[in-house]
Design goal:
The protein has 31 helices and 18 strands. The chain has five domains: about 160 residues, no CATH class; about 150 residues, Heat Shock Protein 90 (2-Layer Sandwich), CATH 3.30.565.10; about 150 residues, Response regulator (Rossmann fold, 3-Layer(aba) Sandwich), CATH 3.40.50.2300; about 140 residues, Response regulator (Rossmann fold, 3-Layer(aba) Sandwich); about 110 residues, Four Helix Bundle (Hemerythrin (Met), subunit A). α23 links the parallel β15 and β16. By secondary structure, it is an alpha/beta fold.
Length: about 850
């Protein structure tokens, strides 16, 4: 019975999860109607029941008003809104109207009110909950009527209308069902079109990524090479980094397509609080360098002319997306029109992108910036130009298009002017902030070119009175200075004769000393996408391209000095001694995360349900530095646990709380934020993201969310290279080998996997969605943590649709396929563990 009621409520919850705020509107309409209908009675002063239903009616109006004020509810109570609305509808619609109808002995007013009530109930609930509410409300009203009436009787005129009432309920639900099917079909077609468009857009970056991987494969030694023969020369290393940079660039382009599409589809507004002052010429040049061209020929077709640079206020990433989209559109017809050239002109508060391609017909220009309008392109999303328009409007500017078919197409982006006074105030504020943050710091400029060194020192001139600036003309001099003095930041040129910047950084990081964790900023004129990968691999913390204006250089220095010392490399060390409370009902998931934390020298206490979290917080006087809690747990789940933590009048109510879940979407993030959580990690947990999130939250005192950023969705890291058969994530298994957990993986995971597969089979055969979701949830987290990559992906394909829409897989035989995949995974894991156990110790 409990499972049935839980499923019934879930249907109601899903019914109101998306779409317009119907419950809020019903609250407004219900409060107004119940009050107005009562006031109409005063036109009949002889009504004997004028005051009889006042208590019931006042209570109904009060409930409706609270439902109408949804946006004013406290954040910690908003997760309870849907449950509250269920009670309101049950009381205010069937219960109230049936009770008043019985007390009045029927009549025309009671019959009409009942018809109205049923219509609203059909509109606001699915058919199952409509029937349950009608039966429950009628039963409760009848019971109270019998108990409170001296002479209860059945109004026959109401009974006579039962066939009409049934017709309203049945016909209304049938009509609504057909309407829902039509809407679902429309959404399906739109989704298919959008998915096809995104797939089309992703072909180019994926093809480039494939090309990069093939290039790496050509350079790598043969698989059978020994340590002595598997050596690469300097040219081969450079080639590998070049392919790596291009691959990363392709991935970045693909992510940009996805991000732009999702932002445009959801009409997500840009956050103006993140806008900053930008140089138009610098952003355009950055776009030209970082755009992922299909070929070197295409790269040569794009040129920039800076007639006059200007400053605008906006978001750099968003505007780069705009320029990428316009460049992509201009180069689209390069194959059929090989003479196409693209010129980007900066000047007079405008950026103009002009190409001499085929042009656009006048009748098409009118709707060019509308969503889902793709002109002359097979498979285009039609969202790119709509996104461009929305970004420019957010910046306070405009974008327009002028084209002559057969001659040219020209997009003009005009930005609002920023006064000289405002620019100077901004410059002075930035310089003052840099001077304050870098006061007392010691900086080392390593640059072999004396002119560049002088120019850099000139840009850093405002720091001369408060910070100490040293110079080194080559890598050897820099290492000598680093051996004698302690520095806060090293601004390091990468291309120097003799000992280059990479070698200097490598020596700094490898050799113990006062500067081993010094912040290193790569400062180079190498292409950004190429040098950035090498700089980060070389242990550097930041990257600045040459040439660089004064303010961006100062911004890079201040950003670096505000970052935790040592960057991401020392994140695990900064968790040493921290007390972490970890809650997850899946023992294997818990063990894996706890192993990562203990490997970082943190103290971990593990529990398996929400109530245990509260008990631990109450019983440990020394307290915890952070709580990691799984959102989906039996009994008190993660959201309820976080709400109780925040509501407690205890010192530990401000402890940072991190959500841990296998299901990552915007509603989940919003629910976590509303519950008071400070971070959001997706299973399978990546060790680096785990360390980074915790270090950020425990770096200060008190609740991080009080002054820090809102919880952010941390996307799962891309799958690491898998085993040859694609079953296993080798990188994750290697991490378990380093932690000494590989044997535990074999003994603990495999029996539990088999048990969960059996539970899932029984639940799916019985059509039990709740039990199936529980088994899938546990299996999802376990397979991801254990590196069972193929099984994880298969489980997720079943889990997400079942959780979000209650839809079982359409393909027959999915359960036997999953069982076979689990068996294959078991064999692969055993083979991997056996192979590792026979390897000689390093």
């Amino acid at each position: 019975m409990t499972k049935y009621l839980r499923n019934l409520y879930r249907l109601y919850e899903d019914y109101h999860a998306y779409g317009p705020p119907r419950l809020k509107v019903m609250g407004i309409l219900g409060a107004a109607a119940y009050a107005a209908f009562y006031l109409l009675r005063f036109t009949r002063p002889n009504d004997p029941l004028l005051l009889e239903d006042v208590p019931y009616r006042l209570f109904a109006v009060f409930l409706f008003v609270l439902m109408a004020l949804r946006d004013q509810w406290p954040e910690r109570l908003k997760p309870l809104y849907i449950r509250y609305s269920y009670f309101v509808l049950l009381y205010c619609l069937p219960f109230f109207n049936v009770l008043i109808g019985l007390q009045r002995g029927g009549g025309v007013a009671s019959i009409s009110n009942t018809f109205i009530m049923m219509c609203f109930l059909v509109l606001l609930t699915d058919w199952r909950n409509t029937m349950v509410m009608l039966l429950t409300g009628t039963a409760l009203a009848s019971g109270i009527y019998v108990l409170t009436s001296d002479n209860p009787r059945v109004p026959m005129d109401l009974v006579a209308q039962l066939p009409a009432f049934a017709m309203v309920v049945i016909g209304g639900n049938l009509f609504k069902s057909n309407t829902d099917k039509i809407d679902a079909e429309r959404k399906l077609r739109a989704t298919q079109a959008l998915a096809g468009s995104i797939a089309h857009e992703m072909r180019h970056p994926l093809a480039q990524l494939k090309h990069s991987l093939e290039g790496m494969q050509e350079v790598l030694p043969a698989p059978g090479a020994t340590r002595q023969t598997a050596k690469l020369d300097a040219l081969q290393v450079q080639s590998l980094y070049r392919h790596l940079a291009r691959g990363e660039q392709a991935v970045q382009r693909g992510l940009q397509v996805i991000s732009m599409t999702l932002d445009e589809v959801s009409a997500r507004p840009l956050d103006a609080s993140t806008f900053r002052y930008l140089s138009a010429a610098e952003v355009v040049q950055q776009a030209i360098e970082e755009y992922s061209y299909d070929s070197d020929t295409a790269r040569c077709k794009v040129s920039v002319t800076v007639a006059a640079d200007f400053t605008f206020k906006g978001d750099e990433t968003a505007y780069l997306f705009v320029l990428f989209n316009l460049i992509k559109n201009a180069l689209y017809y390069l194959t059929p029109y090989p003479d196409t050239c693209v010129t980007i002109t900066v000047g007079d508060q405008e950026v103009v992108v002009r190409d001499n391609g085929p042009g656009i017909a006048p009748d098409v220009l009118k709707g060019l910036f509308e969503p889902f309008r793709s002109v002359g392109k097979s498979g285009g999303t039609g969202l790119g130009l709509a996104y461009c328009k929305r970004v420019m409007q957010a910046f306070g500017g405009t974008i327009r298009c002028h084209s002559v078919p057969g001659q040219f197409t020209e997009f003009t982006m005009r930005f609002p002017a920023i006064s000289e006074e405002e620019r100077e105030q901004h410059r002075l504020a930035e310089v003052a902030q840099a001077r304050t943050l870098l006061a007392g710091k010691r900086l080392l400029i390593v640059e072999d070119d004396p002119v560049q060194r002088m120019a850099t020192r000139h840009k850093l001139g405002p720091l001369a009175l408060t910070a100490e600036l040293d110079e080194a003309a080559d890598g050897h001099v820099a290492l000598g200075l680093l051996a004698r003095h302690s520095y806060d930041i090293v601004l390091l040129d990468l291309q120097m004769p003799g000992l280059d910047g990479y070698a200097v950084a490598d020596k700094i990081r490898r050799e113990p000393g006062p500067n081993q964790d010094v912040r290193i900023i790569a400062y180079t004129s190498e292409p950004a996408h190429f040098a950035r990968a090498k700089a980060l691999k070389g242990g550097m913390d930041g990257f600045v391209s040459k040439p660089c204006a004064q303010l961006p250089l100062l911004a890079a220095l201040t950003q670096m000095v505000q970052a935790p010392r040592g960057g991401a490399l020392s994140a695990p060390g900064r968790l040493a001694g921290r007390r972490i409370l970890l809650a997850d009902d899946n023992a294997f998931n818990r063990k894996a995360v706890a192993a990562y934390l203990r490997n970082a020298a943190a103290s971990v206490i593990e529990v398996d349900h929400g109530q245990a979290v509260l008990d631990q917080l109450r019983s440990h006087e020394e307290g915890f530095d952070a709580v990691i809690v799984d959102l989906h747990m039996p009994g008190k789940d993660g959201l309820e646990t976080a709400q109780e933590i925040r509501a407690a009048a205890e010192p530990w109510s401000a402890v940072p709380v991190v959500a841990l879940t296998a299901h990552s979407d915007e509603p989940a993030v919003a629910a976590a934020r509303a519950a008071g959580m400070d971070g959001f990690l997706v299973k399978p947990v990546d060790a680096g993201l785990l360390y980074e999130t915790l270090v950020r939250l425990v770096a200060g005192t008190g609740r991080a969310a009080a002054s820090g950023p809102a919880p952010t969705l941390v996307a799962p890291t891309p799958p690491a290279p898998a085993a040859a058969d694609g079953l296993l994530n080798v990188q994750r298994l290697e991490s378990y080998q380093r932690l000494g957990m590989l044997e535990e993986l074999l003994t603990d995971y495999l029996p539990e996997m088999a048990r969960l597969i059996g539970v899932l089979r029984e639940a799916s055969d019985a059509g039990d969605q709740v039990a199936s979701l529980d088994a899938l949830h546990s299996l999802l987290g376990m397979s991801g943590e254990a590196g069972a990559q193929a099984l994880y992906q298969q489980v997720r394909r079943v889990y997400v649709p079942l959780l979000e829409h209650g839809e079982w897989p359409a393909a027959p035989g999915w359960m036997p396929q999953m069982q076979d995949l689990a068996v294959q995974t078991e064999h692969a894991l055993k083979a991997y563990c056996a192979a590792e156990s026979h390897k000689p110790a390093a």
